[in-house]
Amino acid sequence: MRREPVRMQAAELFEQEVKPAQVARRLQVSPKSAYQWHQLWRDGGGKALASRGPGGSRCRLSPRCLAKLAAYLDQGPAAHGRVEGQVWTASRVATLIGRNFHVSYSVSGATRLMHRLGFSSQLPTRRMAEREEQAVTAWKEATWAEVKGPGQPVGATSASRTRQASPADRPQDAPGADEAAPRS
What we know:
The protein contains seven helices and no strands. It has helices at 6-15, 20-27, 31-44, 63-75, 90-101, 107-116, 133-148. Helix 1 packs across helix 3. It starts with 5 loop residues before the first helix and ends in a 36-residue tail after the last helix. The relative contact order is 0.06.
């Protein structure tokens, strides 16, 4: 059983001369919404409260172009010159749309378009499949230790530039030194 949209229920109640405050209580909506709907209903009737469809900007690709894009995505990134990482990222799809359809899409717009077509954007893995773990471990132990150099001792610096020094660190002759008590 399909339930009638709340706005259309409100229109029926307005036709029965129910006040907007009562409509808000009955339909469990905010009074502000009920008063706005009442104004729309007075100006344009029940049609003014009908849904205008999904919001947002319209798709800039025609249905034919969307079908082509879906086919391109099915072919995979390698078929479109992407040899590294065989996954579609939103950035790659935005570039693909720009090159093939001469339409600019943002990364987030490309993500929404991919979801609309039934695809999901994938993040490329940073670790290569051909990675040699033993070579990486050996490099970390030998070369990285030389490159990194010795670190600073713990407590030598502070990450906070605005934090005041503790009262114990203040010189005894500093203003207010006698008023500050060290924390326990």
